[in-house]
Amino acid sequence: MQIRIGEKIRTLRKQKNLSQETLATALGVTFQAVSKWEQGTTMPDVAAIPAIASFFGVSTDELFDFNVYETEEKVMAICREAWKIRDEHPEEAEAILREGLKQFPGNDILLNNLLCVIPVPARAPEAISICRALAEGTKYDDIRLDAWRIMAQAYESLGEYAMMKDALGHIPEIYFTRLQLDAEMLRGDERLEPAHKQKRLSADWTIDMLLLLADFYEEKGEKNMALAQLRCAKAVIEAFREDVNVAYFTGTVYEKRRDEIPAIEARIARLEKTEA
User: Fold this and answer.
1) Structure confidence at residue 53 (pLDDT)
2) The predicted structure's pLDDT at residue 3
3) Candidates 2.60.200.30, 3.40.190.10, 3.60.40.10, 1.10.260.40; CATH matching 2-44
C-alpha cells in the first residue's frame, strides 16, 4: 500500500512538473516527508490524504488505484455497520471505521463518519484536523459543508469563538435541503427514504431550536417566552409518541428524546412557580 501511493504521488507530481519542495510547500509538509512517501518508507497521515488528492485533482480512491465502484460499495457497507451502533457504542463504531480506513486510507466518506464518533471537546484538536483536511480536500460538497459544521462545533467546545465564527462563515445560508427536494419531487418509493430522513432531521432541529430559545429567553428574564418554548419542545417530542421506527434509524424521535421530557417539565414547573 505504501509503495503504491508513493509511486502514484511521484507520478502525479512529475506529470505536473513539480519538485518535491514545491509539492511539500503546497501541502504544508517538509520535502523530506514527500521524499519518504515516494520512496515507500512512510505513508501520508490519514487526515492529509484528502488534501493530497485534491491538490492533484483526483479522488482518494484514484490516489490508491482503487476501483471506484467496488470501493464505494465496500465503504458504504462499513459505514452501515458503524451506524447500527454509533449512538449506543461510539467506541466500537470508531473501531469499525478505523479498520475501514486501514483498508481504504483517507477515504472521505469514512473520515466524515469517523467525525461523528470522535468525542468533543475531549478530542477536539483531532476532530478539527480531520475537518480541515476534508474541508480543503474533499470533492463532495456535502462532506465539505459537514466538515465546516463539525469544525465550528469543535472550536466552540474549546472556547475559540473567533475560529468558530470563521468556520461558520464557510457555510452558505440555504433555505432548503436535498432531502426535502427529493421527498417533494421524486416519485413512488424513491421519495420514501428522503421523506423519513427529513422528517427526523426537522423534528430534531425544531426541538433543539425551541430549547435554545428557552435558554435565551430565560437568561434575559423573559419567563413567559421561555415557558412557551419549553411547552412547545415537550409537545413536539410527545407528538412523535405514535410514530413507527424505520430502517434508517435506531429509534423514533420519541424514543430518542423522551428522556429529555422530565428535565423540560422540571424547568416549566420552576418557571411557573417563579411567575406565581
Assistant:
1) 85
2) 45
3) 1.10.260.40
CATH top-level class for 68-168? mainly alpha
Residue 229: alpha-carbon gap to chain centroid: 28
81: CB partners within 8 A, 6+ apart: 96
- Residue of 24, 89, 82, 11 whose CA lies nearest to 51: 24
**CA gap 218, 264 in Å, rounded:** 13
- Concatenated DSSP letters of 72-98: HHHHHHHHHHHHTTTTT-HHHHHHHHH
**What's the CA angle centered on 200, arms 114 and 86, to 5 degrees?**
25
Whole-angstrom CA distances from 170 to 26, 103, 133, 163 are: 21, 31, 14, 11
**Following DSSP, what letter does each residue of 93-158 receive, concatenated?**
HHHHHHHHHHHSTT-HHHHHHHHTTS-TTTTHHHHHHHHHHHHHH-S-HHHHHHHHHHHHHHHHHT
- Residue 25 has which C-alpha cell? 510547500
Domain ranges of the chain: 2-44, 68-168, 179-275
Question: Rounded to 5 degrees, what angle do the CA atoms 177, 248, 173 make?
Answer: 15
Record the cell numbers describing residue 2, joined without a space: 505504501
pLDDT of res. 276: 60
Ranges under pLDDT 70 in the chain: 1-3, 67-68, 275-276
Q: pLDDT value at position 96?
A: 97
C-alpha cell recorded at residue 125: 484538536
Q: pTM, whole model, 2 decimals?
A: 0.69
Sequence letter at residue 72: E
Tell me if 104 sits within 8 A of 75, measured CB to CB: yes
169, three cell numbers: 462563515
Exposure b/e, 48-72, CB count within 10 A at least 16 = b: bbbbbbbbbeebbbebbebeeeebe
